[in-house]
Write a structure and sequence with these properties.
single chain, mainly alpha, globular
């Protein structure tokens, strides 16, 4: 995203907040809908007390753990399924069947097995975010131009050398596309997984749940804002890593 788009996005956010505050000041909004100023004061109060950081850290632990598991397993299995035909023949039907299943439907089973624990939440995040990473990686390997493989073979490269020096670099743009989708899903499912409750009473999703029961829309919006901010920051980090590794792709036309 260039600087011009950054400015447009900032102007849009400021404009929405300004209109929201004006409508709240004129009392044209429902009383239960907190204004941006009230939400901002609650954000500062939670930051000062440390509650904000404790809940954000708990949610980040679950999201990042799930995402790392997805990145490692999704990329490794996706490359194997795309490059080695027997592996692809084994995994493709399984993925085709399980991918459309709403993973939240597995929550009762996971709760019976692991209880209301971080293991349940991380597994739910993993199961949700795994498939986009796996599918994008497999498609990236399948999409490598055959002429590159032939050229490497003519130069005497072995199968593993071709995988390491030709297939993997050519598939990286697709792999990062899958990782970006999976990263977004980890934060979406982190919220859903924490809505079932929290064994330690911490988590932004759990905070939204308790705020809803107490009628605290200011607290709900603070939690939503922090989830959005964390998702945005980690997306920017992933894009920065992509730009660094795929400099040859980022600079094309």
């Amino acid at each position: 995203m260039d600087k011009r788009l950054h400015k447009i996005a900032l102007i849009e956010v400021v404009a929405v907040a300004a209109v929201w505050q004006i409508l709240a000041a004129l009392q044209w909004l429902p009383e239960y809908l907190s204004s941006p100023l009230v939400i901002g004061r609650e954000l500062l109060a939670m930051a000062a007390s440390g509650d904000l950081f404790a809940n954000a850290a708990a949610s980040l632990y679950r999201s990042v753990t799930g995402f790392l598991l997805v990145a490692v397993s999704g990329i490794v299995l996706g490359i194997a399924a795309g490059y080695f035909k027997p592996v692809g023949t084994f995994f493709t039907p399984i993925v085709d069947v399980l991918n459309p299943v709403p993973k939240i439907a597995l929550l009762p089973i996971l709760m019976v097995w692991f209880g209301i624990s971080d293991t349940t939440r991380v597994l739910l995040i993993f199961l949700t975010a795994f498939f986009p990473c796996f599918i994008a990686t497999q498609d990236g390997v399948h999409g490598v131009r055959q002429v590159y493989v032939w050229a490497a073979q003519n130069m005497g490269a072995g199968r593993m050398q071709i995988l390491r020096k030709v297939v993997l670099p050519a598939a990286l743009p697709k792999i990062f596309d899958g990782l970006r989708v999976s990263l977004g899903l980890t934060f979406v499912m982190m919220f859903s997984a924490e809505m079932i409750g929290s064994s330690n009473g911490l988590g932004l999703g759990f905070l939204i749940l308790t705020a809803d029961m107490a009628g605290r829309t200011d607290l709900m919006f603070v939690s939503i804002f922090i989830i959005a901010l964390l998702g945005f920051l980690f997306d920017r980090i992933l894009l920065a890593v992509r730009a660094r590794l795929l400099w040859w792709s980022e600079n094309r036309g």
